[in-house]
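ABC transporter ATPase
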Amino acid sequence: MLKKALHRIALGAERLLDRVPPRRNRSGADLVIDPHIGYSTAEHVIVRGRVLRGLRGSTARHEQGVLRNVWQMVSLFLTDEVAGVTVAHGRATAVTDDEGYFQLLLPVGRPPGWHDIKVTIANGGTASACPVFVPRPDARFLVISDIDDTVLHTSAYSLLRNLWTTFSGNALTRRIYPDSAALLQSLSENGRNPVFYVSSSPWNMHGFLTQVFSQAGLVRGPMFLRDLGLSETQFISAGHGSHKGSSVDALLKAHPTLPAVLVGDTGQKDASIYRDAVQRHPGRVSAVLLKVPQNGLDADDRHDLKQLRASGVHVFPASSFEGAVQQLNLWLPPP
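Tokens:
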């Protein structure tokens, strides 16, 4: 019932925004790029972002009140995205889709590490630096981590609590779990192993999450978020499980020689999602680490964990990730 009401409100807000005429004809001069962290595959360096008619948001302060926090978060969703715009880096070009998103495919060959790719908008738009991560050739494995209630306190298992946590806080007050941050730092091995993040949060939250992660000193990595995809019959473009599963599929395909360590929590049925991923990609997942909430495991969780273990995957379900790295060192081949 609440989700339907939110759907109606969001759809109405989008319609109102769509009726506002642009201040200029689509010359490109008033367009900006909201950069999303890109990544590398065996075939391409993938530069990602979204073209908008202006970026919203303001600097968060520790002492600001809840109403200010709510307005800052709401403003992230009041986007005026622009479709059909050409973006470019050198000779490579891409055209934004109906929601303003683009993926620019560049040739491989850049050295490992972080790169800022200058992307321009056709007809005079503002150029932006879009960050891209290229993994090291000596990586032992890749890490794919959930965000909500695994790394970041969200209360995603309850819609009301999730909304309150999301909209009442700001980039300086949101809480990162220390054990999760320490786990990902250890798994990264000082940047040797790439870390990727998957979340059901919309792409509108990308910049905000980047600030939260940076503020907390969390390992930097590309994110795979969701499009809101508002329509008469649809609130969000894909379900939680299908989005996370397809993101895992894409990352395993992008790194065909690397085994994966999957990190998540049982509050949103990650055990089931990761079990399905293991079945789709036999031999590719080395370990599954799951944070267990205070209410513990239910019967479905226990069944999913049993199936994961039966497939030969090492499983670490616990209320804290403390001790997980030591356990992993017993499971994974030595460096």
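The longest strand covers residues 32-40.
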